[in-house]
Write a structure and sequence with these properties.
Layout: E1 7-12, H1 19-30, E2 36-42, H2 47-55, E3 63-67, H3 72-78, H4 81-93, E4 99-103, E5 120-126, H5 133-136, H6 139-143, E6 146-150, H7 155-158, H8 162-173, E7 178-180, H9 186-204, E8 219-222, E9 228-231
Parallel strand pairs: 1-4, 1-5, 2-3, 2-4, 5-6, 6-7
Antiparallel strand pairs: 8-9
Bound molecules: guanosine-5'-triphosphate and magnesium ion (MG).
Guanosine-5'-triphosphate binds at residues 15-21, 48, 106, 150-151, 153-154, 182-183.
Length: 233
């Protein structure tokens, strides 16, 4: 891999599961050690980029928003060009960068990154979405390079058995890694940062081939006027 090319790491998952928070955590923990950049994808706003800039974990110039104006699948999977340009611009402006994190717009269980955009991808669930979500499967849960079960500190309040949820996820993933994460649990954060380091190493050493988690099932979106649009990609 040429020196100017970073390790591109995608972070996807349903709305509000903690993608931006996870990226902020990675920046806080690794920015002294690795040269980082962040691209966020929001549908209508640059809210995620603003949140990350306000977190004060990375030079704000290294955080850029792509406003997709379309459903997240389109931007991270079907037509990745605007994202690819954003990543390459960031890599050029701050060369060399070690890792560029790309946050997908929050969606349902089906949005995953094209391997043309990222080298590896994390799919984020949270306990508040319910203990049975991991069993529901889908391409991100089953085949992302890493599955996060986030906000484990909330488990007692939502009566979710984290251990069982992780077991269910592991069953769905055929041995691929699952990390139970909470920003209040330093040991879990260390597991996450260790995974980022080792995946970056594997990508650079040519030991990791980006995998397409697979096509999505037909799904629906509710438009601004409340109209439900069902489509496939
Ligand atoms: N208790 C708890 N709350 C968390 C944790 N991580 C994130 N949150 C909260 O979850 C909410 C959503 O977090 P975000 O990081 O904005 O989630 P997101 O997936 O980026 O959301 P979208 O980009 O809107 O899809 C915020 O209120 C966070 O403070 C955690 O580990 N524990
Ligand atoms: Mg976000």
């Amino acid at each position: 891999m040429p020196d100017t090319r970073s390790f591109r790491l995608g972070v996807a998952g349903p709305v509000g599961t903690g993608k931006s928070s996870l990226i902020a955590t990675v920046c806080r923990e690794l920015s002294a050690e690795l040269r980082l950049g962040v691209i966020t994808n929001d549908i209508y706003t640059d809210e995620d980029a603003r949140l990350l800039k306000a977190a004060g974990v990375l030079d704000p110039a290294r955080i850029r928003a792509v406003e997709t104006g379309a459903c997240p699948h389109t931007a991270i999977r079907d037509d990745v060009t605007p994202n690819l340009i954003a990543v390459e611009d960031l890599e050029r402006d701050f060369a060399p960068l070690d890792v560029v994190l790309v946050e997908s717009g929050g969606d349902n269980l089906t949005a995953t990154f094209s391997p043309a955009l990222v080298d590896a991808q994390i799919f984020v669930l949270d306990v508040a979405g319910g203990g049975d979500v991991a069993r529901k499967g889908g391409p991100g849960i089953a085949r992302a390079d890493l599955l996060i079960v986030n906000k484990t500190d909330l488990a007692p309040y939502v009566e979710v058995d984290v251990e069982q949820m992780v077991k269910d996820a592991e069953t769905a993933r055929d041995g691929k890694p699952v990390i139970a994460l909470s920003r209040k649990d330093p040991a879990s954060i260390a597991r996450l940062t260790d995974w980022v380091r080792s995946m970056r190493y594997a990508v650079h050493a040519g030991h990791h081939t980006p995998v397409d988690p697979g096509p999505m099932a037909p799904h629906s979106h509710t438009g601004e006027d409340g109209e439900v649009i069902v489509h496939t990609h």
